Amino acid sequence: MSFNNLDTLYRQVIMDHYKNPRNRGAIEGDHMTVDMNNPTCGDRIQLQLQVEDGVVKDAKFDGEGCSISLSSASMMTQAIKGKPVDDALKMSEIFSELMQGNDVEDDNIDLGDIEALQGVSKFPARIKCATLAWKAMEKGVDEEKQD
């Protein structure tokens, strides 16, 4: 597949997650909530996580922001649901490396649609948009560990 076709496909995946977000809404019952924003561009996210026995049982988000920010939140919640917390944190680490423009391969971690965001690394001002939901997840997991 040529670069232009791949770039177009990635844009389509991002826009699909933006227009049809997965896991947008609120979790019923016991959960943690993390609010974060990106003051540079105004992106705002509220992430809710339900973690039981070290596994992310549910993940939902709400917020306002650009297509990259909200698409990333949609992709992230989809990717971490049902995963052990350690795997979710490993995904976040890999995603951060991807946003820095580094090649990352881990046979144990499938990024799925998240790979569509790799082009964001070419636009440093947009990296914070893409990583906002991931930073919220890391913060929530850290706070959960401290309790």
UniProtKB/TrEMBL annotation:
Domain NIF system FeS cluster assembly NifU N-terminal: 10-129
Database matches in Gene3D superfamilies: 3.90.1010.10
GO molecular function, a single term: iron-sulfur cluster binding
Pfam families: NifU_N
Gene Ontology biological-process entries: iron-sulfur cluster assembly
Superkingdom per UniProt: Bacteria
Family: Belongs to the NifU family.
Protein name, UniProt field: SUF system NifU family Fe-S cluster assembly protein
Organism: Halobacillus salinus
